Amino acid sequence: MSSIFTSCFSLTSLDLSNFNTNNVINMSYMFYKCSSLTSLNLSNFNSNNVNNMWKMFDGTKKSCNINL
Questions:
Q1: 10, 11, 12, 37: most buried by Cβ count inside 10 Å?
Q2: pLDDT value, residue 61
Q3: What was the pLDDT predicted at 62?
Q4: How many of the other CB atoms lie within 10 Å of CB of 10?
Q5: What angle do CA 29, 5, 61 make, to 5 degrees?
Q6: What is the dihedral of CA 13, 17, 18, 22, to 10 degrees?
Q7: Are 65 and 41 in contact (CB under 8 A)?
Q8: DSSP 8-class letter at 2
Q9: pLDDT(63) > 90
Q10: CA angle, residues 61, 53, 14, in degrees to nearest 5
Q11: What is the gyration radius of the CA atoms in the chain, in angstroms?
């Protein structure tokens, strides 16, 4: 899932609560430069196998509401 939403400049909200992330090992740069993102639902993300989250949220707004 590395870089999957990178540079989605116009993306404002995203609900990923139904994503199956059980076997994901790399989430680096996943939301990198999503500068318009204000709402993100990651409530069912399973990060037990993830070993890389480098800059996952780098470039998002400080006011982004993230539901974990």
A1: 37
A2: 82
A3: 80
A4: 8
A5: 75
A6: 120
A7: no
A8: T
A9: no
A10: 45
A11: 11
Give residue-wise pLDDT tens across range 11-55. Answer: 999 999 999 999 999 999 999 999 999 999 999 999 999 999 999
CB 40 within 8 A of CB 66: yes
Q: Which residue is associated with the tokens 């899932």?
A: 1
pLDDT for 67 beyond 90: yes
Nearest CA to 16 among 39, 49, 48?
Answer: 39
Among 1, 35, 32, 36, residue whose Cα is nearest residue 16: 1
Q: CA-CA distance, 11 to 23, in Å (whole number)?
A: 25
Residues in the chain: 68
For residue 3, give the amino acid letter.
S
Q: Which residue has the tokens 């994901």?
A: 24
DSSP for 31-67, written as a single string:
TTT-TT--EEE-TT---TT--B-TTTTTTS-TT-EEE
